Amino acid sequence: MSEQDDRAERQEAIDTLSTYHRKMDELEALLSRPYHHLGNAERVEVRESYKWLKNDLKAERHRLERAEACGQITHVEKAFVLPALSGSLTHLKPATNSNPANSRWFEAVYGAHVDISFALAGLRRQQTNQPDG
């Protein structure tokens, strides 16, 4: 694999994880407010965002697990993305139809956010430590 291919794989992984990172930032901002202070539209947004996040993380993890089983996963996906997704999902235990306030959605999203942030930091550190080729 060329250095350019490796850099492209890392950038793709950074882009993927950055999307989840932004979504988690947005969801945490909503969840940090008392649920009873949210308007109906915001409550719907909280529920839809949490549902999207949980379902999309599951789908992406499943796709990578299938790729790994077929030997088609990249080393960047295997070392950074798959562990970040799996770790994040372990935090997102509250059901999507549960009450966000009573089910501790903020804590769940925060824990998932930490896993994504850790993987992103590792990828960015690698990206900046690579010589220009």
Number of domains: 1
Structural class: mainly alpha
Main sheet summary: none
What CATH calls the topology is: Four Helix Bundle (Hemerythrin (Met), subunit A)
Name given to the CATH architecture: Up-down Bundle
Number of strands: 0
Order of H and E elements: HHHH
The rounded distance between the terminal residues' Cα atoms is 13 Å
Estimate the helix proportion, in percent. Answer: over 70%
Mean pLDDT: 92
Explain the layout of strands and helices.
Blueprint: H1 3-31, H2 40-69, H3 75-91, H4 105-129
Helix pairs in contact: 1-2, 1-3, 1-4, 2-3, 3-4
Q: What do these coordinates show?
A:
By secondary structure, the chain is an all-alpha fold. It has one domain (3-129): Up-down Bundle (Four Helix Bundle (Hemerythrin (Met), subunit A)), CATH 1.20.120. Helices cover 76% and strands 0% of the residues. It contains 4 helices and no strands. It has helices at 3-31, 40-69, 75-91, 105-129. The longest helix has 30 residues, at 40-69. It is elongated. The mean pLDDT is 92.
